Amino acid sequence: MRVVVDLTKCQGYAQCAFLAPSSFRMQGDEALMYDPAPAEDQRERVQRAAAACPVQAIQIDRLSVQDMPPVHVVDRPSRIVVVGASLAGLRAAEALREEGFTGSLTLIDGESCEPYDRPPLSKQALSGQVAPDATALPRPDLDASWRLGVNAIGLDLAARRVQLDDGSSVPFDRLLITTGVRARSWHDPVEAALDGMFVLRTRDDAVRLHERLAFLAPYGAAAHLSEAVPGPLEPRDAGPTPRVLVIGAGFTGSEIASTCRSMGLDVIVAEAAATPLAGALGGVIGAVAAEVQREHGVDLRCGITVESIEGDADGRVRRARFSDGTVADVAVVVAALGGVRNIEWLRDSGLAVGEWGVACDAGCRAFDANGLVLDDIFVAGDVARAPNAMFGYQFLALEHWANAVSQAEVAAHNMVSDESDRWPHLHMPSFWSLQFGINIKAVGVPTFSDEVVVTQGSVADRRFAAAYGYKGRLTGAVTFNHGKWLPFYARLIEQAAPFPPHFTTVDQPDSMVPVPADVPDPKFLARDATVVVTGHDPSSRSASLRSSR
After folding, report:
1. Strand, coil or helix: what is 390?
2. Predicted confidence band at 379 (pLDDT cuts at 50, 70, 90)?
3. Is 291 exposed, middle or buried (0-12, 13-18, 19+ CB in 10 A)?
4. 334 close to 183: Cβ distance less than 8 angstroms
5. Of all helices (H) and strands (E), which one includes residue 294?
6. pLDDT tens digits, one per residue of 219-272
7. Which residues 6+ apart lie within 8 Å of 195 measured at CB?
8. pTM, entire model
9. Is residue 305 within 8 Å of 336, Cβ to Cβ?
């Protein structure tokens, strides 16, 4: 049995935790933790929980595509290839069959395992609450050819073939690129090879890191899982303790630090920006996140970089040297430096690719290097760079669970539809993070802003909503344990509501005075932002193509 919860939709009503407590539980006030692979004897309870969810956020094993009603498709292609079989690729494949596509369907991915969900890796899987290999995504029998453990190394547009590293190639009529991102490696290859250096992106990464953390934890991994600590943890003062160094305080780094603290481990977090989460939420809200981390016993060092990692005679991580001249003994180092888009195989393809991914139009059709739209190449998920109508048609690069699903469905529909029946991708950016017992959720693009104001709740109580604005218009919102209000802010953003906002709601603070949002320089955002406004200049009429040679 496989379960996945769209935590963007989840609003913490906890009906599932009442109906299936062994599979769902609340952490803190409104954050949901769940078992992605419940025991079969829990099926009836889990099904009742899914049916009772007020926002229908719980998905269980999907219906077989053979059970879907047939759909008439005009000008149907006979061969579709999807490169990248993670969340976006799998959802696109499902949607293609649901759309009535009955031709040859091939999914290619460099990982040898079936598609799995990534968000649990830094939470349930890392702590040991669930096994990393239990995070497989629900999926039906797609009647597809799976080429797993094989990497795409080239694309021949003229011949319509994807070249693979096993020497073979796969022909296509339509191609969907969903290759996503990979973890950014530590810059020094010698230091990166030390025993005790880790990144966290794949299921294998989670397995290796969990095993090391469980070994270092002062008590067995199973002991703390049922009582993950939502409140502050006091640092221990007795005896030397193996420490974990997390480099980078974006969402992944902060979640890793939170999990390590719940396991009783001492944690140092080094962040080059002035606050954690600055690349996603700006410095003002990032300062609140910094207070939360320190309240939970994290040794947070902001405005500081790691100069080097030193190993002992046996090649194990021993200490870290920081830019402020300090040195710390550490046993594990996790480089949480953001992602690198997997576009190297497309460098000489003639597509418009770059460090922000593959450029495409609002219908997910890829651009070539001359800016022409291609009708047979589509893009979705983290690797896509697409214009968004709600933000002045700026090109956005999004690393969001919900965006990957939504964009994949639009791409699948458009791949098998006439021009008159194609859909635009109009997804409202939305994302979430669970750390230190706090459910952080956001809509819009908080970093596309110049001001921010707390509109509801109490920052001191860590339960509040804040709105972001740019040049007098509402562009984003973030909540800490106040997620039920996000749909309200999403509607205002869609309506281009004025900023600062003027409305009367419950628990408004006495004063609502906007302050500068303190968004880092866009060049700095390249490190760990989950939303990047990569921009366009309407007055520009020039283009350049840079060869990778």
Report:
1. helix
2. very high
3. middle
4. no
5. helix 278-295
6. 433 333 333 334 444 444 434 568 999 999 999 999 999 999 999 999 999 999
7. 311, 314, 315, 316, 317
8. 0.87
9. no
